[in-house]
Write the structure tokens for this entry.
Amino acid sequence: MPDYSIVRVGNEYIVQAGEKSILKISSRRRAVKLVTDAAELLDQQAAQPAGDSASIRRDPDILPGPSELP
């Protein structure tokens, strides 16, 4: 996982992953929260067994498939 940093540029904060800028936000507190949340999600994903990945699927009882649309 890359190292994250938050850099102030004028009145905004830039979140960087390694050398790459990935997010611009006006609140340092919000930037820290977003980086923390993202790191927790990545840790959870890494802890999941390989065959137990989550997916999103259409429920045929609720949403019609593309061939069933008018």
